[in-house]
Amino acid sequence: MNPTFRQQVRTAKLRGIRSSLAISAALGLCATATAADETYQYFRFTPTVLRGPAENSVQVSEFQFIDDGTPISVAGVIVTNPGGNFPGGENPPKLVDLDTGSKWLNFDKFQPVVFEFTGPVTIDTYNFATANDAQERDPVSWTFEGSADGSSWTLLDSRTNFATTTARQTYQSGFGLGGPGISSFTRSLAIVANGQPTELSWSTLNATSVSIAPGVGVVANNGSTLTVPPASADTTYTLTATSTSGSASATTFVRSVPPTTVNYRYVRFTQTKLRNNASAFGLQFSEFTLLNGNTPIPAVTATNPGGNFNPAEGPEKAVDGLTTTKWLDQNRLPLIVDLGSPSAITGYSFVTGNDGPDRDPIQWYLEGSNNGTAWTIIEQVNFDFPMPEIRNFASQDIPLPGIAFNPTVSLFVGDAPKLILGQPLVLTWDAPGATSVTINNGVGTIASTSGSVTVNPVANTTYTLTASNAGPNTATATFSTEIITPSNTTINYTNFDSAGDELALLGDATIVNDFANIPLPGNAERLRLNPDVQSDSGSAWFRKRINVATGFQTFFDFQITSVNDSEGADGMAFMIQDNPAGTGILVPGDTERGLPTRSLNVRIDSFEGGARSGSLVQVLSGTTVLGSVNLAEVPALVSVLREGIDLTQTGLDDAPYQVRIDYVPGDLDLYFNGVLILPDINVDLVAIGAVNAAGKGYAGFTGRTGFFFEAHDVTRWLLTEGPPAPAVAPLVLKSHSFNFVTDQLSLTWGSSDTKTYRITTSTNLAPPWVVLASGIAGAPAQNETTFSVGFTQGAKAFFRVEEE
Q1: Which of 206, 313, 498, 639 is spaced 20 to 30 A from 630 at the CA atom?
Q2: What is the pLDDT of residues 274-304, one digit of tens each?
Q3: Residue 30, beta-bridge partner list
C-alpha cells in the first residue's frame, strides 16, 4: 500500500467511523411505553432488520395511524418508497388500501416508505400487518419518524429485535409514541488490543435516566465516552434508557485480545459469512493489507485458487494499493497474500469494494504459512463485524488475537431443513482453531476439524456440533431437519399444480400462478426461479435423490419473461449434483452456470454482453464447458427467438421453450424445441462426481438477475430414470424438392412413430405460419417420413416441419 493511499484510508476512518458504525450497531429490544400525541403531515417508516437476516426484500400488507384507539382515515394519503425496487402490483399504495390480502414488497429492503397526508394529523399509536407469505421478510427492527415538510425528520419511535408476529396477514398489538427509545448505540472499534480504549456513542429519546453497563454507569441522554474493555474477553455493553413510561435497552459488542506478532510469508483469508449470503454475487475487497504496528507490509502478489473472477477484477487487485480497483470472486473462495518472505505481522485491515454491499465479508478467519502448504490459524472473527455499507470504506486496524480466540464453526450444513423419509443426510463442517469436535445423536467425536458425515434420521432431529480448543474455549452450531413423506415421489410435473414439500425452494423461488399476466401455456401453477426484479436469485431442488448414473431422460419447458422489454438478464440452469449441502444449497454467484463442483450443469443464458450471446446454451461439468451453442446461429431456431437473437420473451404470450436431455454414460444429447443442438457431449456423471456411490444425485434448477432483470420460469418438468428409449431420428429436414410444374413440394425428415407432424409456411419467417398439412404420421420402419404439399408460386416462401 502506498503512503498516499494509506493517508486516504486514515482520513476516511477519522471522518466516517462514528456515523458509519451507527448503521451497523446491534441494538436490544425497545420496551412498549405509554402513548403520547404527535402531530405531523408526513410520516416515515424505515425497516432496519428483517426476521431473516439473509432475506433481500421486505414486505408489509397494511399500515395504520391511530389516535385514542381509533384508526385515522388514510383517504388521499400519498405513499412512496424513495429508492425502492417494487413490483407494479405490490407497490407502496397497497399499504393503505385497507386490504391485508394485498401488500407492499420492496427488494431494496432498507429503503423507507413515506406517508404524506393531505394536512397535519395527530396520532399516538401506529401499527402494521404482516403480509401473506415469507415471514423472513417481516421487519423486526425499524424507525418511525414524523415531519412537517417532508425534509426535516423527528424520530418518534424505534424498535429493535421486536417479536413481530409470525401469523400471516395479521396486525401487531400497536406501537405507542412518547416512551423512551434508543436511536443509536455504537462503538468506534469492534476489536481492540488489551488496554486499548474504544469509544461508546449513543443517542436516546424521551429518557429521564440513561446508564451503560458494565463499568460505565450513569451517562447523559446523548453523548460518547472512552472505555477500556476487560482484557482478553468478549464484552457486551448494555445501554438502558428509562422514564416514567417504561424502559428500553440496546447492546453493542467489543472483543479485546492480547497483542500478538506472528511471522509468516503467506496469509490466507477465508470468509465464513457475507453481509447477505443469499443474494451476494461473490466476495469482494478493494484492498486487503497486512500490518506491522501501523506500517503496511508490501505484498508481492495475491492468488485466489479455484476462484471465478473477471481478469480485470483478479486477486492481485486486492493488494495493488488502489481503492479504484477490486478483487471479486464469484465462488467466494480464499484469498492468499504472498509477502515474498516471512514477515512480522501484528494486524490487518481491508477496504470495501465500490458496489454490492451484500458482498462484504462480516465473518472470517486468517491462516499463516511459510510454504503455502501447511497452514496455522492466526485469527477468527466469529461475530458480525460492524462493517458499514459505505463503499470504499476502510476498516479499523484489526489486531491479531494470538491463541485467545474461540474456535469457529464456519460451516455446519446438511440438506434443506426438510428431508424425505429414507433419504440420507450429509452433515458438513469446518471448525478452524478447534482441537476437538463432537456431534450428538450418535455421531460422537470427530477426528478431523473439517469434513462430512452421513446420517439417516428417521424422525425430526436437531444435530449439535461442539468445537473446543486448549483455551479452553468452545463454540457450537446446530442443524435441524424435519422428516416429511410427500405425495410426489417422481419428477412428473405437466404443470406445478401438485407441487408440495418434495420441492425445496430457496432464495426467491416460488410456485405461482401467473396466468393473468402470462396466458401460455395455460391456467396453472409454474415454478418461478426468480421474479422479474433486479439482483435476485432462487434455486429449486427435488428433495429425493434420483438414480441417474446409468442414464436418464428429462423434458422441461421454460419461459424467460420481462415486462421491462429487457434485452437479456443473466439466465438459468438445470443441474444434476452431489454436493454435500444437497437440496439446501442456494446456488451462489454466477448462478446461470450452475454449481461449480460435483455437478452437471445445463446453462441457459439470455444476457448479451461482451462475447456472450442473448441465446447461449452450454453443457458444463462444474465450471468446465463441455459444449456450447448460440441458438441465433441455428437456422431452425431463429424464428422462435425474439428478433432472431434473444431468449427473453417480452410479448408474454409466447409459448414456452422446450428442452430435452438424453443421457447415457459418456454421451449426452441436448435438444431445444425439437432441434438437436448439442449432440454427443462426452460426460460421465460418476466421473465428475455428480452422483453418490449408489449412482444417485439431486436434480433441480437455479436462476438469477443482475442490473437487468426478467422472470425465469419452469412450466413443465418430466424426468425418467435409466437409459432413454432408443433414439429416433431428430426432427431435421433431410431433403426437399420443388416441382414448379405441378406446384408440389416434397419434404423428407427424421421422424418417430409415436408423434404426428404438420407442415407450415410463411413469407417472412415470422408468424402467422399457415398450416398446409397436419396429422402426418411418423414412419417407424426407416425413422423418416416423406410428404408432399401444394404451394402457390410467389416472390418468396419458407416452409417448416413441426411436431404436433
Answers
A1: 313
A2: 887 656 678 999 999 999 999 999 999 999 9
A3: 248
What separation in angstroms does the CA of 69 have from each of 38, 72, 119, 175?
14, 9, 20, 11
CA 137 – CA 163 distance, rounded (Å): 13
Task: Retrieve residue 515's grid coordinates.
Answer: 396466468
Other C-beta atoms closer than 10 Å to the C-beta of 726 total 6
Cα–Cα distances (Å) from 454 to 212, 409, 478, 583, 758, in that order, read 48, 18, 16, 14, 53
Residue 154, beta-bridge partner list: 146
Asked if 90 contacts 103 with a C-beta cutoff of 8 angstroms, the reply is yes
DSSP-assigned states of every residue in 317-371? GGGSS-TT--EEETT---EEEEEEEEEEE-EEEEE--SS-GGG-EEEEEEEEESS
Give yes or no for a contact between 332 and 588, defined as CB atoms under 8 angstroms apart. yes
Contact 790, 739 (CB under 8 A): no
Judged by DSSP in three states, 36 sits in coil
187 pLDDT more than 50: yes
Is residue 507 within 8 A of residue 530, CB to CB? The reply is yes
Name the β-bridge partners of 537. Answer: 704
What's the rounded Cα separation, in Å, for the pair 734 and 711? Answer: 37
Here the cell at position 523 is 391456467
Q: Which bin fits 724, alpha (ψ -120 to 50), beta or left (φ > 0)?
A: beta
